[in-house]
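Researcher: Structure prediction, please.
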Amino acid sequence: MKLSLPEIREESFEVKTSIKNIKKMHAYQLELAKSQEKLASVQDGTLEELTKAIALDDMSVINNAEKFITEILGLNKKEVDKLQEFDRGQFMNLQSKLVLSLQGYDDDQIDTMFTEEVDSAEKKVQALKNEKSTTTTN
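Model: Predicted structure follows.
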């Protein structure tokens, strides 16, 4: 799969669905699951414990995603620096696209998923606005 990221490099990246890359994807997903387990284990903790656990989880997610993206795309130091300038939304969308492509989805399917996700989120926001305006007028 060709992946265009002009913010990082002019020419497209080639993302291969090799067994090596699929193993990296599963290892990445396992790390995310472990991080979520740790976070869930302190759910009944104090505010301080929860705050610390959430911060550690966020750092773990970002660090693991950066490592995964860097390895799959074969980024050099300069390209990693550019990746680190992405906002959170761009960054997480990129890791999602990489995971989905390694799971066998093509560009059209991935684009459809992202479009449906955005449409669904926009509908939820609109429903909340409608609900809020209804409750304030009653």
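Model: Residues 107-137 form the longest helix (31 residues).
Researcher: Thanks, that helps.
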